[in-house]
């Protein structure tokens, strides 16, 4: 059943993990900030996690739409300070470059060979927890949104209040809301699924009532550690898939394509 959500807050982040120098799947950070402007143009309360090196540029973009930063909080956390880094960077390095994993991983993709990529993906839940724990904007509902998730021209998003609070309040806000390419879906083998290119739940955006963040973090971390202990790992999307299937009653799935989540909740 729906709830009386009053203070939804978008949480996003931008970090340098050396992607501009990768051999494949490269992306300049200028390009990421350019994409990020779409999210920054929304007339919504936003908490942005980033490094000192990106602060001035992000703030400059955001002031175009929130001149006095009344709806903006920028939090500086360097890479090594992130909980995801402290918990998983060494474990992921040890795993990804081990002979056992190299024999299993047949796709040359970042979630298989770039530990820092997974560190950032896994830290999403820690950022929303930090936002909730610090009571930023007195939030009662947090929306994770990837910095480069929105790709249409800025004019599509500029000045729009998103997500629509009436639509949020039509959700069952006793559950976490994921957007998924498939509903229903199953995973017959966690290792095969994690190492495949099959994906269901999207990591680009998800909705969490603030009182459910700790539960999500606990279950998400359990899945990560189970995977690493079993000598395999995949992207955050694979971790979400496996976590979801452990107890589907905790979650609400909305079937949609990439980035369709924006229109659904406009």
Write the SSE topology.
Layout (H helix, E strand, L loop, with lengths): L7 E7 L14 H12 L5 E5 L1 H12 L8 E5 L6 H14 L2 H6 L5 H4 L1 H8 L1 H10 L7 E5 L19 H4 L7 E5 L9 H6 L5 E9 L3 H17 L6 H11 L4 E5 L4 H5 L2
Parallel strand pairs: 1-2, 1-4, 2-3, 5-7
Antiparallel strand pairs: 4-6, 5-6
Helix pairs in contact: 1-2, 3-6, 7-10, 10-11
Explain the overall architecture.
The chain is of the alpha/beta class. The protein contains 12 helices and 7 strands. The protein has helices at about 30-40, 50-65, 85-95, 100-105, 110-115, 115-120, 125-135, 165-170, 190-195, 215-230, 235-245, 260-265; strands at about 10-15, 45-50, 70-75, 140-145, 175-180, 200-210, 250-255. Helix 1 (about 30-40) links the parallel strand 1 (about 10-15) and strand 2 (about 45-50). Helix 3 runs antiparallel to helix 6 (about 115-120). The protein is globular and about 55 Å long.
Taking Cα atoms only, what radius of gyration do you get, to the nearest Å?
18 Å
Mean pLDDT: 94
Number of helices: 12
User: What structural class should be given to the helix and strand makeup?
Assistant: alpha/beta
Unreliable stretches: none
Helix content: 40-55%
Strand numbers in spatial order across the main sheet: 3-2-1-4-6-5-7
Shape: globular
N→C terminal distance: 20 Å
The secondary-structure element order is EHEHEHHHHHEHEHEHHEH
Strand proportion, as a percent range, falls in 15-25%
Report the strand count.
7
**Largest sheet report:** 7 strands, mixed
